[in-house]
Write a structure and sequence with these properties.
The complex is a heterodimer. Chain A is mainly alpha-helical. Chain A has 13 helices and two strands; from the N terminus they run H-E-E-H-H-H-H-H-H-H-H-H-H-H-H. Chain B is globular. The chains are: A mainly alpha, B alpha/beta.
């Protein structure tokens, strides 16, 4: 369009929203860049240039935290989209008690994360937990799910999957409802099997839902903190630390400037991963 | 509708009456521990009984690092109320006491406070900013007397004797050492409570450490604490669920004889008293043994203190209350509320004769000069924030002691730089 259509509303209508946006979003964002370059103890801030960034990258467990963050985000995002799609197909197929089963799958989304953390600490207890007691009945000596350094991160990712798959399922159910039944009818007339219908009709046409699920769960996984803090606190030692828990521990220690620098880095990391991903997804959508 | 004017009149009268009495309401913030609340309620109730014009509003804040951040935020914004209960030592120094807390050097109650406590609430300008609240604690090892009696063990004076006892306990099919890494802070005891032994061998350690000269990794005496954690794990002395067990589990294990030893601070006695009163006399307490039986002594944690935020508008009333807390009467009220779990830092405040056995085990250390040393966090402003992660790693066999000590030195360096200390 050559010239923009003139809005019927005067510009000052935007003022209330602009005030909220500037004071609550823009100012803190720029303030955080400033504070990330200071030594800040809440009482006073001294400008120290890039020292906090140097220190943060020197953090001995930062690299492990970064790797853990990526493993965790990819693992939870992939498993939520695969399992979410399968559950959505099952729960739109008209099986018995469909409505009830849908609410059962969604229920964990509604429960407080801290409550889930405490519950799974009990369920995954190495000697008194239900999981290992059940495994003992079939003769398996279950591991220490949350305090084995090689296993803790995966146990937490599993809990995150259990908690979050309901939301992915919900998005997929909405996505499936948007597919016109004509496509399936045409496929059936052509003699396609159920499996072929799934791969050739459902998966391509449910793409908008897949994009939403992957983007949301990847962002959620990259900045994931609450479920990790509620179950392992990044432990044992540093073995399930992710970027967000490393940052939180700097806040706890009173290193406010350093922690803010960590948050700026987390912000950059999410932007670097999500922006190209969104661009790629959107481009593919145009191709379709 | 004749009621309304008379009600308004009544309200006006009561307002005038209230003004005439000049009610002062002091707001108090505490850490919310059961013992803190019990002591604070006893003190405030007694004070209001003697001064009816002063009442209190007690608020409980979260403990641990979340509480630290809350206190700092409130002090920075001038909303910390009139009286603040908070740690002494390095955490006190992080509050910037010169700017944020009132000078209490000259209040009447200071005359009763023992000098060793004053040193841990003294700001950088040499003024005293707090009064002690609660008893001093020892850091060491609880032991189960029944297991000792059954196996014919005696209280060890050296680490080697301690490990020999553990071997006999393990051979008898029992858990020798309870560890509770589910509460990560509890994993630090073998390192922190070893400080008496460190300073017995390296008297200058605290000063050299603060001045960036001495390191854990190159001071064998300081490394010993890390080594102890590794040794008890490797020998298989720990409870099976050490990775997830919590502080309450550790207390239960040593009180009921599920485990023979539990390294902990003496405040755990309050927990035993509350949850396992019938086992109170089954537990004893010993200082953490070192290399030399002749140099056996106790590492001591100073209690929290009460402070007055500089922004408080009721300074005089708050100071008078703090003088009351630091009196012998105040001390006796605290003992009455919680029983005697350790010595109070008030002159002439004697503990009752019938203290529990574990307290009686601890008192002789305090009665002889030189048998106690404050924990390092009361001598130096720097304590690396990740110590509890390193101690969990060493204590679970994830990382060797020497490597963890070196990484801890880096953590300490970070803390010193963030505090902006000279020499770092």
């Amino acid at each position: 369009m050559a010239s923009r259509q003139k809005s019927p509303y005067p510009y000052w209508f935007v003022l209330p929203a602009a005030v909220v946006f500037v004071t609550l979003f823009l100012v803190p964002t720029f303030a955080s860049f400033w504070f990330s370059m200071t030594r800040w103890d809440l009482f006073e801030a001294h400008f120290i240039g890039w020292d906090n960034y140097h220190q943060f990258f020197k953090e001995p467990f930062l690299v492990q935290g970064l790797v853990n963050t990526l493993i965790y985000a990819v693992l939870t995002s992939a498993s939520k989209s695969v399992l979410g799609l399968l559950l959505a197909v099952l729960l739109t197929s008209g099986i018995l008690w469909q409505g009830f089963l849908r609410s059962v799958v969604f229920f964990p989304v509604l429960v407080s994360t801290i409550g889930i953390g405490i519950t799974f600490q009990a369920l995954m207890h190495p000697t008194k937990g239900v999981i290992n007691i059940a495994l003992a009945y079939v003769g398996i000596d279950g591991p220490s799910w949350l305090s084995d350094p090689g296993l803790a991160l995966y146990s937490v990712a599993f809990i995150d999957l259990w908690k979050g798959v309901g939301l992915a399922t919900l998005i997929y159910i909405a996505g499936l409802a948007a597919i016109a039944p004509d496509y399936y009818e045409a496929a059936r007339i052509d003699g396609a099997t159920r499996v072929q219908q799934f791969w050739r009709v459902t998966v391509p046409l449910v793409r908008p839902a897949t994009v939403t699920v992957i983007t949301l769960s990847l962002i959620g996984g990259l900045r994931s903190f609450d479920i990790i803090w509620a179950t392992t606190r990044g432990g044992p030692g540093f073995s399930s630390d992710v970027l967000a828990s490393v940052i939180y521990k700097q806040y706890q220690a009173g290193f406010y400037g350093l922690a803010t620098a960590g948050n700026v880095i987390l912000f950059m990391l999410i932007a670097i991963i999500i922006l190209p991903l969104t661009w790629w997804f959107n481009r593919r959508e145009v191709d379709l | 509708m004749r009621l309304i004017p008379s009600a308004a009149l009544l309200a006006a009268f009561s307002l005038v009456a209230g003004l005439a009495q000049a009610q002062t309401v002091l707001s108090v913030t505490t850490d919310g521990n059961a013992e803190t609340v019990a002591a604070m309620e006893a003190l405030t109730a007694a004070y209001t009984a003697a001064h009816p014009d002063v009442t209190f509003e007690i608020e409980n804040r979260p403990g641990g690092a979340d509480g630290d951040n809350l206190v700092k935020t409130r002090l920075a914004t001038g909303e910390a109320g009139d009286i603040l209960q908070y740690n002494s030592g390095s955490l006190f120094q992080a509050l910037k006491p010169v700017e944020n807390l009132a000078d209490l050097s000259d209040i009447a109650g200071q005359a009763n406070v023992i000098d060793s406590f004053k040193s841990v609430v003294t700001a950088s300008d040499g003024t005293v900013r707090g009064v002690p609240f609660g008893p001093a604690m020892g850091g060491g090892i609880y032991y189960n007397k029944k297991i000792d009696a059954e196996l014919g063990l005696s209280v060890p004076k050296t680490w080697a004797e301690f490990m020999a006892n553990n071997e006999k306990i393990k051979a008898a099919g029992k858990v020798a050492v309870a560890q509770t890494y589910g509460d990560t802070w509890s994993s630090q005891l073998f390192v922190l409570a070893d400080y008496y032994n460190v300073q017995a061998q390296v008297p200058n350690f605290a000063a050299d450490y603060a001045a960036n000269k001495a390191k854990y990794a190159n001071t064998p005496a300081a490394m010993a604490g890390f080594q102890h954690l590794e040794d008890v794990f490797k020998a298989g002395y720990l409870n099976e669920d050490f990775g997830v067990a919590k502080f309450d589990d550790g207390v239960r294990m040593v009180a009921t004889g599920e485990a023979a030893h539990y390294p902990m601070l003496t405040f755990a006695l309050g927990n035993i008293k509350q949850n396992f009163p019938e086992n109170l006399e089954d537990v004893g307490f010993m200082a953490q043994p070192g290399d030399d039986a002749a140099k056996n002594g106790l590492t001591v944690w100073m209690p929290a203190a009460l402070y007055i935020p500089a922004a408080s508008e009721n300074q005089e009333a708050a100071k008078d209350f703090l003088s009351f807390v630091a009196s012998v009467e105040g001390c006796n009220l605290m003992i009455g509320a919680n029983g005697a779990t350790g010595p109070y830092l008030i002159k002439d405040c004697a503990l009752p004769a019938d203290v529990p056995g574990a307290v009686a085990d601890m008192l002789p250390y305090f009665q002889t000069e030189g048998l106690t040393a404050p924990a390092l966090e009361f001598l130096s402003p720097i304590k690396g924030p990740a110590l509890e992660q390193f101690t969990v790693e060493v204590g679970s066999g994830i990382r060797p002691a020497a490597e963890a000590a070196g990484l801890y030195d880096q953590d300490v360096e970070k803390q010193a730089k963030q505090l902006g200390l000279p020499n770092w």
